[in-house]
Design a protein that fits this description.
The chain is α+β, with helices and mostly antiparallel strands and about 500 residues long. About 20% of the residues lie in helices and about 25% in strands. It is globular.
Amino acid sequence: MTFKLFPKVIVFFIISLLFINCDKSEDGIPTDLEVENFILGGLNAYYLWQSDVPDLADLRFSNQNQLNSYLEGFSSPKNLFDNLLYTKENGYDVNEKGYDRFSWIVDDYVALENSFQGIIISNGMEFVLYSEKDSNTNGYGVVRYVVPGSDADTKGVLRGMVFKAVNGTQITNKNLQNLLFGDNISYTINLANFNGGNPILNGNSINLTKSQLQENPIAKVEVFTEGTKKIGYLLYNQFASSYDSELNAAFATFKASGVTDLIIDLRYNGGGSVQTATYLGSMITTESNTTVFSKQMWNKKVMENNNASNVIDYFTDNISSTKELINSLNLPTVYFIVTEDTASASELVINALSAYIDVKLVGTKTVGKQVGSITLYDSDNLQRNGANLNTNHTYAMQPIVLEITNANGENNPNGYTPEVAFEEDYGQISGTINLGILGNRTEPLLNRTINYIKLGTIPSAKTPVSIKKEPITNSKLQRPFANEMYVEFKK
C-alpha cells in the first residue's frame, strides 16, 4: 500500500526479559554478527508469528556461542531475516493469522523514516507498466499521476502519457528494473502513441531527474454542487502524519461549504499511520473519545505483558501533536474510491467506519492487508531513541507485529469488493486510454461515484474487454514500503 501505525502504545515491557539466554554484551557478539543478532532478537520480541517459528523460540539457543554459530550460517542479514519469516516459501502451512506477506528489512533507516512522511528520491512520475498486446516480453508505461512541483511536473509529464523506451532502449520484462528502478538519477522516457496496446514511438522524449521529494498526500480538495447536494471530494495518497493539520484543514473547507456527501479517493493510497487513519475516521463521523475505532492483536508475549486498553485505538476530537480540534462532518454515509492499490491504513478506515456508518465503495477490489508493523532499531529497547543505538550500521526492520480489526472484531485479509465495480481504463478495457483529469468532475471514477450518490444503486460498468492484460508492476509497488501500516512506540 506506504503507512504508519500510531496507536496508543507504550514500550510494552523490558526488552531484556524477552532475550532469554541471549547475551547482548559486546564481549558475546562478534562485530560481524551484530546485525544478525539484532534481527533475531527483535523478531523474538515482537514478530506476530514468533511462537510459530521454531528458530525464534525463547529457549532455542542455550548460550551466545550457540547463537553465533547459527547466525554464521546465513550469507547476509537479509538472508537471515527472510528465513525467519512465516511464509509459504519457508515451508509453513497457513494458520489463523495467515502467512506473512509484508515484513521487510532495510539497510538505511533514514530513508525509511523519510518514506513514512512522503519523502523519497523521485522525479515525481507515477506510472503503471504493461506488456504489449502482441508481446509477452516488450512493455510500455502509462503515467498515472504526477506529483505537483516535481521534475516531471515541471517538464510537462501528464496523466495518460505513454512511453515504451527509456534512453532509447525498449522496455522489456528483463530490463525494466535497471531502466526505471535502478540507482540512475536521471533517465529519458521515449514517448509513444498507444496504438491499441502495441505502442509506436512518436519521436518525442522527456528527460527526468530524481531528487529528494516530499509529496503532499492531500492531492485534491474539491466541492461539487449537484442539485441540492454538496459533494466533498478528497484525493488522498498517503496517511503521512506530518500532514495531519493539512488533512484537518481540508475538512474545514468541507465543513464551511456545507458538504452533505463525501468522497474519499484512496485509489493510490497504500497506507501509512494508523493514528492518522483514526484522525480521518474522526473527521468523517463524530464519535466519543471512548468509542473504539480499532483493536490490535499482538503476539502472545506482548499481549500478556500489556494492558488491554493499550492495544485499542479510539475515535478522537483533537490531533494530539497540535491539540487542534478535529473538523468532523458527522456523516451517516461515506463513499470511498478504491483500487487494487488501496491497502493497509486505507482498508483500516473502511473497516473501522463500517461498524458505525454506511460505507460505500466504488472501483476495484482492495489489497487485503489487515496487519501492521513497527520499526525496530538496534538499541537496548529496539527504539530509535533507545540507549546504546548501534552506530556501526543503519539496518532497521519493519516486521509484522499485529493484526488489526474494527470494533466488532472484523477484518478482511482478502480485500474489500466495491458495490459498484469500475476500473481505471489504461487502454485495457476500451482499447483507448481514458483516464481523465484527477479531481475533475468528468474523471471516470469520480463521475461514477457522484452518479452513485445522486441515483443510489447503479449497475456496474459493462464494457467489452479489448486487451485485458494485468499490469506488470507500478512505480509505487517498487518501493519496499508501498503497502505499509505501521505503529510507533509511544514516546
